[in-house]
Structures are given as C-alpha cells and as structure tokens.
C-alpha cells in the first residue's frame, strides 16, 4: 500500500513538473523544432533561408526557395542528381546542411543559362541528345560545368598522368559520381568534349 502511494506521488510529481515547464515556456527541447536562419547567394541573388536546422541544402533549394531544377534521387550521396556548385566546387546538396552554407555562393541548374541563352554546355547537351528522361540532367550539367573549371585550373584526377588532357577516360572518371539510369553516358561525354573545345566560355 505504501509502495503504491509512493508510485502515485512520483507520477504526480512528473505531471506537475511538466506543467511548470510548460507555463514557463521551457518545454523539453525534443518537442521544439530548432530553426536557423541562413543567408547565402543563389544564382546571383541574396537569399535568406529560415528552416529547421536539420534541413539539407537540397531540401532548402526545392522546398524553401522553390528551385526544383535540382533533383532528389537517392538522397544519400550516391547518384549525383542533386549536384550544385558551391563557391566554385561541385557538391552533393543532399549531403550538406543549408545551415553550414552561411555566406556561400551557390549555383544551381537554374543559374547556368544567361537569361534565355543556354550555356555552351547546355547547348551541347541538346545537340548531342545527352539525355532521355532528363532526371539526372541538372546534376550532370552542374557537375560538367565544374569539371571544365577543374580542368582549366589543372586539377588532376586519379586517371591523370602528368599533363591533363580531356580524354574520354578523364571525363568518365570525373563524371563517375553522376549516374544516368537512361544510359546516356556516351552522348554526355560527346557533349562535354564539344563544350570543352569552345574553351573557357564553356565553363561559365
Ligand atoms: S540525391 Fe544526392 S547524391 Fe543522390
Ligand atoms: S536521362 Fe534519364 S536518368 Fe539520365
């Protein structure tokens, strides 16, 4: 009997503590959504993203900023559909929290064209039929745009052997993080070769 009485007191104590916490506005943290405000530049525009601190850059682009060109494939860093360019480097936006991009400069597929004028790489993708369903194409384009800049900067890959030549092997290695379920790989390589032949403008 005494034991039951003690048990009641303990549960009542917990209930009262909860009430006090609630009335003071200090509920346990697990019941709150931790929000964060991040300022960054996206395709040349200053943007502020107010989002749950656990939001990925990919979800912030698609859900908060309505930039749905960047695609979600695997959502775990394995397909490259979500590739965007951050401060000149390509990254998988599904693996990166938007809160970690304070002050960063982000380019998505929507930022590759100059108004109505497609970039040389985009034109080459059209010319060479480098897509079928097109789901992977935004990621392929962002990845290839950054790839051409890496080549210009003389950055080697694992298959580079001394002088960096934009060979088919080099392109395939550097684009290996971007999967295409339609198998448009040969045409993608051809498009990149053509864009590269146009020099620095291609990597705009
Ligand atoms: S969605 Fe990011 S790598 Fe697949
Ligand atoms: S064009 Fe369909 S997945 Fe690449």
TrEMBL record:
<feature type="domain" description="2Fe-2S ferredoxin-type">
    <location>
        <begin position="36"/>
        <end position="112"/>
    </location>
</feature>
<dbReference type="InterPro" id="IPR036884">
    <property type="entry name" value="2Fe-2S-bd_dom_sf"/>
</dbReference>
<dbReference type="GO" id="GO:0016903">
    <property type="term" value="F:oxidoreductase activity, acting on the aldehyde or oxo group of donors"/>
</dbReference>
<keyword id="KW-0408">Iron</keyword>
<keyword id="KW-0479">Metal-binding</keyword>
<dbReference type="InterPro" id="IPR001041">
    <property type="entry name" value="2Fe-2S_ferredoxin-type"/>
</dbReference>
<keyword id="KW-0411">Iron-sulfur</keyword>
<keyword id="KW-0001">2Fe-2S</keyword>
<dbReference type="Pfam" id="PF01799">
    <property type="entry name" value="Fer2_2"/>
</dbReference>
<dbReference type="InterPro" id="IPR002888">
    <property type="entry name" value="2Fe-2S-bd"/>
</dbReference>
<keyword id="KW-0560">Oxidoreductase</keyword>
<dbReference type="InterPro" id="IPR012675">
    <property type="entry name" value="Beta-grasp_dom_sf"/>
</dbReference>
<protein>
    <submittedName>
        <fullName>(2Fe-2S)-binding protein</fullName>
    </submittedName>
</protein>
<dbReference type="InterPro" id="IPR006058">
    <property type="entry name" value="2Fe2S_fd_BS"/>
</dbReference>
<dbReference type="GO" id="GO:0046872">
    <property type="term" value="F:metal ion binding"/>
</dbReference>
<dbReference type="Pfam" id="PF00111">
    <property type="entry name" value="Fer2"/>
</dbReference>
<dbReference type="InterPro" id="IPR036010">
    <property type="entry name" value="2Fe-2S_ferredoxin-like_sf"/>
</dbReference>
<dbReference type="GO" id="GO:0051537">
    <property type="term" value="F:2 iron, 2 sulfur cluster binding"/>
</dbReference>
<dbReference type="InterPro" id="IPR052914">
    <property type="entry name" value="Aldehyde_Oxdr_Iron-Sulfur"/>
</dbReference>
